Amino acid sequence: MINLKINGIPVSVPEGSTILDAAKLANIRIPTLCYLKDVQCVGSCRMCLVEATGARGLVAACVYPVSEGMEVRTNTPRVRKSRKTTVELILSTHKKKCLSCVRSMNCELQKLALEYNAEEDRFGTDHDIDPVDDLSPSVVRDNSKCVLCTRCVAACNNQTIGVIGPQHRGYAKVIGSPYGVSLAHTSCVNCGQCVVACPVGALYEKSNVADVWGAIVNPEKHVVFFTAPSIKATLGEAFGLPVGTNVDGKMVSAIKQLGDVKCFNMDITADLTIMEEANELLQRIMQGGTTPMFTSCCPGWVKFAEHYYPELLPNLSTCKSPQEMFSAVLKTYYCEKNNIKPEDLYVVSVIPCTAKKFEITRDELGHYTDAAITTRELAKMIKEAGIDFANLPDGKYDTPFGDASGAGAIFGTTGGVMEAALRTAAYVLGGEGAPLEFKEVRGTRGIKEAEYSIGGSTVKVAVANGLGNARKVIEQIKSGEKQYTFVEIMACPGGCINGGGQPYVHDEIRNSIDLKAVRAQALYDSDSANKYRCSHETPAVKALYDEFFGKPLSHKAHELLHTTYHQRDKY
Ligand code: SF4
Ligand code: SF4
Ligand code: SF4
User: Fold this and answer.
1) Nearest ligand atom owner, CA of 197
2) Catalytic member of 17, 136, 230, 317
3) Which of 136, 158, 492 to mutate to test the pocket of ligand 3 (most atoms within 8 A of CB)?
C-alpha cells in the first residue's frame, strides 16, 4: 500500500493507483472530462490537474501515479485558475446554444463552466465547424458542440469498429470519419456507445419524437407503444430517481397519459423469441444443423457480423429481434383480431438502443415498426407533456400483451437471453422440474462460459458483451481453440441496460458505481418476483401459438418471425 495525503487527509491505496483513485477513496472530488471509467484514461483534457509534491508543475490526476509520502492539493488558487482557463479555451470553439441543446441541464461542460465561473467569450468564438452529419438512421454528429475529449473515439475503438477519430491538426482538429464521409457510409454498427460516452450535445440519436406526436394526434391512427425489457430499469434516471429503480408501473401510466394510446409489454416477444430460438437450437443440435448457433436479437451485433464475419451468418439464429417480432404480430394477428387495417395501426417501439432505429429500416424485416424511440426520447415526451413522473401511480399494460415471464425481463442484460433460452430448452427436454437459474452466465464480465447437461446432452455456451469481447470469442471459435453449442452476443458492454439510447449518466456517477450491474439487478429482481419464470409459461405466448402460429418454427412463424442476413462491405 502507498500512503499519501490529499488536502491534508491521509489515505492508503494499492501501488499503481492514480491520484484520482486515491481522491475517490478519500471522498474528494476532482473534476474530469476526457476520463471515463471502462472507456478511456488519457489525461488529455487537463480538467483534473492538481498540485503534487515531487512533480514539476500541475499533473493530471487521472493518469499520475501516487508515491509514498506524496502530498496532493486539489483546490489551490493555481489549480482553480488552470481549470477555469481550460473551460474557457474549450468554450472558444464551442457553439453555445445551450437553451435548445439536447444536453441542456445535463451537460458536463455546462456544469464545469458554472462551477469555475468561466467567461463564455474570453478567447472569442470564431471557429469554422463542419456541418452536422445526420445521414445515419441512428446517430447525429454535431462537431460544433464537440469538446475533443475523444471519449467517443475510445468507445468506438473499444467496440473494435474504429470508424471515428481525430481529423486534421491543431485548431482545425475535428472528430469524424476518414476522408470526411458521413457515419452512414461507414461500417458503423449504430450501437450508440459513442453517444452515451459523449459529455456534451455533440452526439445524439436521430429523433422520431415529432413523428410519434403527429401519429398520436391523428384521429385516423391507432397508436400502440411497446416497451423493451430494460426500459423499466433505466427510465427513472431521467427523472432523478436512483440508478436501478424499477419504474415499470409509472412508465405504463406515463405512456397512457401521452394520448389515446395503448401500451404493451415487449417482454412478451422476448418470450416469443425464446420459444422460437430455443426450438431452433434444439433442431440444429438434433438434426446436425450449423453450430455454434449465435443469438440474433441485437441489431448492433447482427450488422457487425454482416460487415466483419459474413462467413458466420449461417450460424446466426434466423429469429427476428423481439422488436421486429412484436411489430409483425401487431400488424397481423392484432389487427385481424381487432378489425384494424394494418396501415391504420401506428407501432411505436420504445428501446434502449440506437441500432434498433437502423433495424426498422431493413427491407428484409418487412417495415412493420413505424417508429423506434429511445429511453431518452420517451423521457423527453413525458417531460414535454408535463407529466409528474415521480408521483405517478403504477399503471397496467393493456391486454392481451401485458403479463410476461421473468425470462423475458432478463433479456435486457448480458446473459439474459442465454439464461432464458436455457430455461426453455431444459423444459422442452426435461419437462417439469427443469432448472430455472443458470447463474454462471450472469454478471457484467466481458466473456462468460459455462457447460450444462440438458436432457442428457452436454451444452457448452459462451456469452460476450461489447463487440471487442465478441471478436475475441469469434476468433477463438474460428481457430478451433474453443467449441460451443450456443453463443449469446450483445453489442453494448453489459447488454441493453447500457445501450446507446439509455439515459445520459454523468461521468461522476459512471466513475463511482458499476452502472451496468446496478441496472441489471433491477431486472433480476423483477424476474425472481414474477409468477412466470419461463417463456413458455407466458399466457399471451401460449395464446399466440394456439390461435395464430400453431407451434414454434411453423410455416407461419417462419414467415413472420424469422429473417435472413447479408454480407456488407467494410469501410
Ligand atoms: S454508433 Fe457504435 S459503431 Fe457507430 S460510431 Fe458510435 S460507437 Fe462507433
Ligand atoms: S463528439 Fe463528444 S465524445 Fe466525441 S470528442 Fe466530441 S465531445 Fe468528446
Ligand atoms: S446490446 Fe441492446 S442496446 Fe446494445 S445494440 Fe444490442 S440490442 Fe441495442
Assistant:
1) 2
2) 317
3) 492
- Indicate which residue's Cα is closest to atom 2 of ligand 3: 496
pLDDT range class, residue 457, cuts 50, 70, 90:
confident
The one-letter code for the residue type at 264 is: F
Kindly state if the Cβ of 535 falls inside 6 Å of ligand 1: no
What are the residue ranges spanned by the domains of the chain?
Answer: 2-75, 91-205, 268-319+401-561
Q: What is the C-alpha separation between 396 and 403, in angstroms, rounded?
A: 9
Q: What fold does the segment set 2-75 form as a domain?
A: Ubiquitin-like (UB roll) (3.10.20)
Q: What is the pLDDT of residues 264-308, one digit of tens each?
A: 999 999 999 999 999 999 899 889 999 999 999 999 999 999 999
Evaluate whether 242 touches 519 at the Cβ level (below 8 Å): no
Confidence of residue 430 (pLDDT cuts 50, 70, 90): confident
Counting residues of the chain whose pLDDT is more than 70, the rounded percentage is: 100
Q: Which CATH superfamily, name and number, covers 268-319+401-561?
A: Fe-only Hydrogenase (Larger Subunit); Chain L, domain 3 (3.40.950.10)
One-letter identity of residue 501: G
What residue has cell string 495525503? 5
CA of 486 to the centre of ligand 3 (A): 19
pTM for the full predicted model: 0.96
Ligand nearest to the CA of 469: 3
Q: Among the options 108, 205, 237, 280, which is catalytic?
A: 280
Whether the Cβ atoms of residue 310 and residue 571 lie closer than 8 Å to each other: no
What number of other Cβ atoms are within 10 A of residue 488's Cβ?
28
Helix 299-308 / helix 467-479 crossing angle, nearest 10 deg: 50
Closest CA relative to residue 267, chosen from 407, 394, 396: 407
For residue 146 and ligand 2, the question of a CB distance below 6 A is answered with yes
Q: Mind giving me the DSSP string for 64-89?
A: PBP-TT-EEESS-HHHHHHHHHHHHH
pLDDT computed for residue 204 by the predictor: 98
- Cell 500541475 belongs to which residue? 58
Residues 6+ apart with CB under 8 A from 375: 231, 234, 235, 238, 350, 351, 352, 499, 501, 502, 503
pLDDT tens sequence across 33-65: 999 999 999 999 999 999 999 998 999 999 999
Asked whether 467 and 323 are in contact (CB, 8 A), the reply is no
Fold of 91-205: Alpha-Beta Plaits (3.30.70)
Identify whether 359 is a catalytic site residue: yes
* Structure confidence at residue 124 (pLDDT): 81
Q: pLDDT tens, 407-428?
A: 999 999 999 999 999 999 888 8
Q: Cβ–Cβ contacts within 10 Å for residue 498, how many?
A: 28
Contact in structure between 264 and 398 (CB atoms under 8 Å): yes
DSSP output for 77-122: HHHHHHHHHHHHHHHTTS---GGG-TTTTS-HHHHHHHHTT--TTT
